[in-house]
Amino acid sequence: MNYVKRLLAAGAMSFAALPAFAAQNVTWWDFLSGGDGVRMKALIQRFNEEHPDIQINGTTLEWGVPFYTKVRTSVTVGQGPDVMTYHLSRMPLGLEENVLDTISDEDMAAAGLSKSDFFPASIAAASDENGALHAVPFDIHSIVLYVNKSYLKGSRFLDDKGNVTGIESLADFEEAMALAKANGSDTPLSYATGDDGGTYRVFYTLMKQQGGELIADGQVLPGDNLGKAAKAIEIMTHWHEEGWQPEQAEYPASVALFTSGKSAFHMNGVWEVPTMIDLAAQNKLGFEWTAIQIPTLLGTTATWADSHAFAIPAGSKMSPEKRKAVMTVIGWMEKNSLAWAGAGHIPAYKPVATSESFKEMEPNATYSSLAETAAYDPRSVIAGVASPVYDASINIISPAMHGYMDPQQAAEQLQAELQAKLH
Amino acid sequence: MAMITNRRRDVAVAMSLIAPFVVTFALVFLYPTVRMVLLSFTDAPLIGNGHWIGLENFKRLMSDRLFFTSLKNNGYFVLLTVVPTTALALAIALTINRLKGALQALVLALFFLPYILPVSVVTEIWMWMLDFQFGIIQPLFASLYGKSIPVFKNPYWVMPTVAAVTIWWTNGFNVLLFIAGLRNIPQDFYEAASLDGATRWQMFRRVTWPLLWPVTALILTLQLILQLKIFDQVYLMSKGGPFNSSYVLLLMVYREAFQLNHGGYASAIAVVLFVVIMVVSVLQFQLLRSRGQK
Prior knowledge:
Number of helices of chain A: 18
Number of strands of chain B: 0
Low-confidence stretches of chain A: 15-20
CATH superfamily of the largest domain in chain A: Periplasmic binding protein-like II
CATH class of chain B: Mainly Alpha
Number of domains of chain B: 1
Main location (chain B): membrane
Low-confidence stretches of chain B: none
Number of domains of chain A: 2
Order of helices and strands of chain B: HHHHHHHHHHHH
Transmembrane segments (chain B): 12-31, 75-94, 101-119, 157-180, 211-228, 264-288
CATH architecture of the largest domain in chain A: 3-Layer(aba) Sandwich
Mean pLDDT of chain A: 90
Helix content of chain B: over 70%
Strand content of chain A: 5-15%
CATH topology of chain B: MetI-like fold
Mean pLDDT of chain B: 91
CATH architecture of chain B: Orthogonal Bundle
Oligomer: heterodimer
Subcellular location (chain B): Cell membrane
Distance between the termini of chain B: 50 Å
Largest interface: A-B, 34 and 25 residues
Number of helices of chain B: 12
Structural class of chain A: alpha/beta
Structural class of chain B: mainly alpha
CATH topology of the largest domain in chain A: D-Maltodextrin-Binding Protein, domain 2
CATH class of the largest domain in chain A: Alpha Beta
Number of strands of chain A: 14
Largest sheet of chain A: 7 strands, mixed
Keywords (chain B): Cell membrane, Membrane, Transmembrane, Transmembrane helix, Transport
Strand content of chain B: under 5%
Family (chain B): Belongs to the binding-protein-dependent transport system permease family.
Radius of gyration of chain B: 24 Å
CATH superfamily of chain B: MetI-like
């Protein structure tokens, strides 16, 4: 009797706590931390305030292998989220694992979106071989070259308006680094040399700038690509030997080298743009900075890039109402992605990316041209975030450029190792 | 008649008493082990069923260079840890054993302290101390070698460093076992030996060492099993690099299963590791025991 009474009381209380209509709770998983995380949490909060009938319950998990392992295991046993962020570079593995539901044209319509609203390259990256969409692209993010202008004052690398200019080849760039070093920059080019992502992104950019392919038709570094990989490692080794790049810098140290004014250049993802903007706004940076597209050092204009996207786990038994709520969330996020661009990213949703407000956004507008020459990771199950390619970067490329192995030998080991994973 | 009933009752009581253990053991160890062995003959992903492919995984393993690199690294790590940690623990135990009262308890506690720390804390402490830019041990390296050494990024330093951290972490338990063994040796033997004019070294050689041998053999075997299973420290500190110089079998199992979604292949590696550990440890224990009995 007592039990029934308590049950009734609890029931009455929960009714009182709920609004009169049935709100849809959308479980959301992401891997966004730092500046990204702050902006995404703000977006989720705004969405929840504007939509009394849909509530997003967000959980942030650790980026990389932990996130994708959890996604795979939870989705397989039917305990996955309703919507999650996903890297497009990870699509091939996600499709092989069968964790990504198809997003139909009706779904897109429910979100108020259509495929033609997005950059074609990102839609292609988000689709399977048959053209079925498995994720909705959210942004394009790449590495850029952050510049501390104070080391270039009075040189040919700054024009009258204070814009960075004249870096059109590897020789130009190395001249600029030597100049910055002479002007007192301890480590003229900072990037995360002791970190998988930092090393990989620079390596892949240098590969693509030679017109190279890391993986093509199931072959790792086929033909003359082996030589191009060796050349890329050789360039990075040279930067190490000259003392232009830091030795074994972990990610936070590589950022700190730039923000503390010790490095004239910094190669890193656009996601650090908010760090610079915030520091500059608080007058803590102490120098004039800008971010530009990675200069064309080796003939071909190309920059490593990836995309964040929204995906729905496969095999979930979502009600049509819930599915609609999830698509509403995705649609709203796309239409409000200008706030996301504040984290440095280029929106994948063209109405925002081509809007006047985005074109006025700095420094995004300066480097947004890179979207046209963005070099996505090879479409392979061993490439992408938290993949064997990333592991090989820390296992082989990073120690090689620190002088523990000859570049040619390192390229060969890279090839052998990755090929062995492609069975 | 009455006797038979009693025996039956005895059997029933005995069964019900061991049932909790047997059931738990079967459920959380035996069943998963059997499943893992079965899985190793399939091409299954991490979760879900695959097709029976016979010995294909094992054949592939035989041509996988990384497997042999890992096997070799496991062996190297065993060499770097098992005997050194046992010898060190014996030396520490002998020293502590000569201390008295509260001081002895205090010193023992100090040596045992690292053992109660979780592996993540241990590796974090050492990664800070050995940090290439800011580590407090780096000035020592700089004074010895003229420059700082990125120990986890240097192919020659990485395994010895992981081994040193592992010994620091786990040595306390071995010290404890040795102390227990030392306390089991009757004091009379030493008194008799000293009456006969035995030197300290002779006492150790003729009394302590042989009587302590069962404990030593046990520690060596436990250490061998434990160190063959090395994973956490490598995963947290060096991730198998550089150039696979710290790649070990369990890391390979983890990467194949959780990163590449190859449940079957990962199980095959795990089965091989299981067999290696079983064979090596049984062999070693028999060898050590027979030596002790001589």
